[in-house]
Amino acid sequence: MNEYQIKFKEDCYYAENNAGKVISELLYSKIKQGKVISINQVRVDPLFRNRGIAGKLLKKAVDDAVKNGQLIKVVCSFSKKAFLQNKNYQKYEYKEN
Prior knowledge:
about 100 residues; alpha+beta; 5 strands
């Protein structure tokens, strides 16, 4: 059984535990007339770190962006590292000229 659920609100993917507490957030903004999402920050409550929650939030954000025909600009250090390690993500990375 999962100890959290991934949810979405405008410009934010988040994980909420079974008690209703937000334990992780991925904050993003739409740029380039909505054709690109900029992943600005990923935060995880210290009590819930090293459980893969941030990675699941990032995967959901990338999957949704791809489904919507958007590219992803990686800004925060967590997303930069994840994109460096994941060749599949790199296909969808937005690079400024």
